[in-house]
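Dear Dr. L.,

I hope this message finds you well. Following up on our conversation about the binding site, I have prepared a predicted three-dimensional model of the protein together with 5-O-phosphono-beta-D-ribofuranosylamine. For your records, I am including the exact sequence and ligand specification that went into the calculation, followed by the structure tokens. Please feel free to forward this to your student if that is useful.
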Amino acid sequence: MKVAIFVSGRGSNLKAILDSHELKNLVKVEAVLSDKPDCAAFNIANQYNIKTYTVGEGEKKLKSDEVVAVLNELNIELIILAGYLKLIPSELIDNFENRIINIHPALLPSFGGKGMYGMNVHRAVFNSSAKVSGATVHIVNKLYDNGKIIAQQCVDISDVKSPEEIAERVLEIEHSILPAVVKAFAENKIKFDENRVVIVK
Ligand code: GRF
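The resulting structure of the complex is given below.
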């Protein structure tokens, strides 16, 4: 299965996918895209000889319709958002219905939505005194963090002393739950019922 990964930052989820033994013979990362051409994730893509594309407005940046054309030319079957912070344009959502997924560092629908990314999420979780947090992989639609949930995994945070501790525990979960969902897509094990998304065994 050919995938494209949208990033904006460190790229640890990108690397988790690239290093996943389970995905080795199942998935090929054909493109890494970002609105931030100087992000560390692009360095990772370059190390793995994966083509990078800068998206957004301005010179040498792919606009929404151009992104759709490039991804179709590459025969992309699944788009993965791994730290990408911009809203995905409608053209892309319409072209890749139910084939765009996002990893969110909390248990949606709690602690999600516009502005809820990175440490903002973990600070909100910490300040709420929540006893569990976790990660969510969901379908991307036209709203932030709003699409149908595909997978979640939680972690006990009742003993944490800082938002950074939450971030650390959740990131570990992200690096396993995201490759697991990508594998399920590659094996055609994601089923869409009326209201729910199920990973069949
Ligand atoms: C992750 O915490 C992810 O949940 C969120 O953005 C962060 C990306 O981290 N969407 P990285 O760039 O994959 O290290």
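In brief: The two ends are 19 Å apart (CA to CA).

With kind regards,
A. P.
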